[in-house]
Design goal:
This protein is of the alpha+beta class. Helices cover about 30% and strands about 15% of the residues. The protein is built from four helices and two strands, in the order H-H-H-H-E-E. A two-stranded antiparallel ribbon has the order 1-2. Helix 2 packs across helix 4 and helix 3 crosses helix 4. It is extended and about 75 Å long. The mean pLDDT is about 90.
Length: about 150
């Protein structure tokens, strides 16, 4: 929407559109091949050891002959949305405003197909990004329906 050839100044155009003027000059920088390779290795390590933080992952990468610092690993983990899994305080305390739903399958005898279905979702690492995989299964026959 911003036209640098327009007679209106860039400042005035950004004011009309209610944009920050500094955003007019921003150009996204592509991720380097080295960072893509590191991100792939970090993802592999994280899938195998989800409890590891940036320090442990850095040590794993250095064992594989990749010279990288903890801060860079931490930055890449944040960019990928990866965090170490560990028990945080008060995770078992329900919020008083949240409704507690009953477990409807307790005591239910599942003996025939199409009686109870279950679902699971996961992601698969691809060459550039991720692909989500969803499975719907029948509990009695253990067959994958979709």
């Amino acid at each position: 929407m911003i036209d640098k050839e327009h007679p209106l100044s860039l400042t005035r155009q950004s004011q009309i559109l209610e944009l920050s003027r500094s955003s007019l000059y921003y150009e996204a920088v592509a991720v380097s091949d080295r960072d893509l390779k590191l991100m792939r290795l970090i993802d592999e390590i994280h899938l195998k050891y989800p409890f590891m933080g940036s320090r442990s992952i850095r040590d794993q990468l250095q064992d594989k002959e990749h010279q990288v610092g903890r801060q860079h690993v931490s930055t890449l983990m944040k960019k990928m949305g990866i965090a170490a899994m560990y028990r945080k305080p008060k995770t078992s305390k329900p919020h008083p405003a949240h409704k507690v739903y009953p477990y409807l399958l307790r005591g239910l005898n599942i003996t025939r197909a199409n009686h109870v279905w279950t679902t699971d979702i996961t992601y698969l690492p691809m060459a550039r990004g991720f692909c989500y995989l969803v499975a719907i299964m029948d509990w009695a026959s253990r067959k994958v329906l979709a």
